[in-house]
Specification:
By secondary structure, this protein is mainly α. The protein has one domain (about 1-60). About 95% of the residues lie in helices and about 0% in strands. It has helices at about 1-15, 20-60. Helix 1 runs antiparallel to helix 2 (about 20-60).
Length: about 60
């Protein structure tokens, strides 16, 4: 998925004019940040869910 996004960015970069290239590069960077943010958020949420689940099962026993 990472390489796919990366190559898409290169393709956009190559196919666009110099003026547009900067804008597209910004777009790709924003996309990367969003992907990273989503992944980190999902991991944190998953971790909290697991921790909460384990705490709850400990309390019930």
């Amino acid at each position: 998925y990472w390489t796919q996004t990366f190559f898409k960015g290169i393709a956009i970069f190559k196919s666009s004019s110099e003026k547009d290239a900067c804008f597209h590069l910004k777009d790709v960077k924003t996309g990367f940040v969003e992907i990273i943010f989503q992944r980190v958020s999902n991991k944190i949420i998953h971790f909290i869910d697991q921790t909460a689940f384990f705490d709850h099962s400990d309390m019930s026993h």
